[in-house]
Design brief:
4 copies of one chain form a homotetramer. The mean pLDDT of chain A is about 90. The first copy, chain A, contains 9 helices and 2 strands. The first copy, chain A, has one domain. Chains in contact: A-B, A-C, B-D, C-D. The interface between A and B is large, with 36 and 38 residues. Strand 2 of chain C pairs antiparallel with strand 1 of chain D.
Chain lengths: ~190, ~190, ~190, ~190
């Protein structure tokens, strides 16, 4: 099990760190620093989102007692989505203010919806088959309750792109902010 | 032994995450999103293939009791192949539909054949010299049986490229799908 | 707690290693090797700075007994700054000698100030809430004392850029050198 | 100590995996596959060299009982050299056959000499101050004996570049091959 976590932590960490290319490619020259604020927001949104997902994966794994090959395959699917995030992040940063904004926001949102689906698949399979004998029922219930809204929330924010790509991007930012607020305000739970 | 696994997990995770450049370089602009489906398929094929190889490496190491320098050298050879995968993946994604498709499919297949050879070298050396005293004979036999077909299967899929690069690429995708199906359908084995 | 460290170590290691692109993009050809000394200095300055920060994070974590979600969020904020470092490093290396030098030095310094703020936030929250029962009071006091000057020192070096970008860059280099000297001269403390 | 190894393993793994950009940038198109053999050789040489260095670092750490800040600083210096390797590798691969070959070979060799110096600094400081009480004297003597020739060997291969860059590059390849042969032929030592 610890090696699954090492591999997963590696993909989370590399995907988050590669996000810097979003900014780096958008700002070839210091003269562009002030105009590239969409890059900084996109970088921060995706970094925080991947960071929160890492936290959720960490919490999820504390309740899992053993790992089978199906669980590994589902985790690989989840990591495939996480590693994809830098690509739509760059598209969104570069094109939110031009005619490509709608497609960029759709690509970003679609990636997030897929990630949320994979997260639920990993969790609900793990909960059904691989739970620790001494798993904390309240934590298990809490995770289940917090995962369910992820899919419709990201789906709604994605569909908003048909009306307004900018509103969609603001919603992606707001979701990340909401997760941080939730973790900071109520997240006093101790984890060893 | 744990450090060999940390290093290996690092290379597996970084190589898998770098695959996103395949898509990122192929789609500079949201207008290209719809036409770049070969990139998405190539990304998914290689990500899943590296992920399955990571799973196999993980399973292999559970049966190995100690590590010597020859085993490390063989593992470095294996990792050299794994880290190479993003390159032919990009070639295949970009050129499968033009005149470079045959060479791209050959490069991809050749990389996979080399990887399969290195995997077998790691395993059969480890099985002969470094097996845990309490290794599970059924698992050992199962690994040996599952590794042997890898080389001829990838070799056959590679040679198909001389007749049809597209058919060869579909076979690479099918092999990855088959591995997932195998792991999902029969893979109920518990691993701690 | 160990997974937080794995994730953090991953981001530190990847961010440090990605710094090589600063040099790689600046020197397309061996003929440019001699003129690109600003790249080598920038690479070394940022690599050492990230390395020292990793050491500090390592030392900090030895005094922390448990981790809660707020601490994780603060750590994600810190890592977001660390992963950002390769971008202003490249700007500084390429533009310190042209008219973009001032903005590049400001971007570099601003990143360092943010990093120092996040480091203090992680530490002072951790010290207040999550300290090990058996934390060494002298080490705790030593960390607190060594963190406080970080923010004003980097802020001062940043503001110097308004007068002279080159002087600002030299100060960034000097700060990194000072940290090394401090660690080498007085750093005989054993850590397991 | 384990965190120093996690960080080091991360840098080794990322630096090795980034070497693929040497090949990827040199071969934009499948039509160039056959002509880019210098890239494949450079990739293999540097990957194996970094892999062997990882093995040596692994062996070195088995004899070290504790870590102090000076040892960490020396290790950061070593990792700064390791992370630098992808850059001269690309220069060598692209320019060994043109007029930039000499400078490229000098850059590659200089990086290797610096790496060998840092390796010796890490080891001889660690041997003097931080050895495990139960360190194996034969292993300690063996490491010392195997590290000393590294600096003059790489220095000699580097200086050959003034006469012939190609001969110098062949020597770099031969050194990597020699290390593999040594590890394979005599390297039956068990490591847990």
């Amino acid at each position: 099990m610890s090696r699954l976590e090492t591999f997963a932590d590696g993909v989370f960490a590399v995907a988050a760190t590669l996000l810097i290319f979003t900014v780096d490619q958008h700002v070839p020259d210091p003269a562009d620093l002030a105009h590239a604020w969409t890059s900084y927001l996109a970088y921060a949104t995706s970094f925080v989102t991947i960071g929160i997902m890492w936290m959720n994966h960490h919490q999820l794994m504390t309740q899992i007692g053993r790992v089978d090959r199906r669980f590994m395959v589902a985790t690989i699917g989840l990591l495939m989505c996480i590693a994809f995030v830098p690509f739509p992040t760059r598209l969104l940063a570069e094109h939110i203010r031009d005619s490509g904004g709608r497609d960029a926001a759709l690509a970003y949102g679609f990636t997030m919806v897929c990630t949320a689906i994979c997260f639920s698949a990993v969790w609900f399979y793990g909960r059904a088959q691989l739970l620790r004998p001494d798993a904390d029922p309240r934590v298990v219930k809490g995770i289940s309750r917090s995962y369910l809204p992820g899919i419709p929330i990201y789906l709604a924010a994605t569909l908003v792109a048909f009306a307004s790509p900018v509103a969609s991007a603001i919603l992606f930012l707001a979701i990340a902010g909401l997760y941080i607020f939730e973790a900071s305000a109520f997240g006093g739970g101790t984890e060893s």
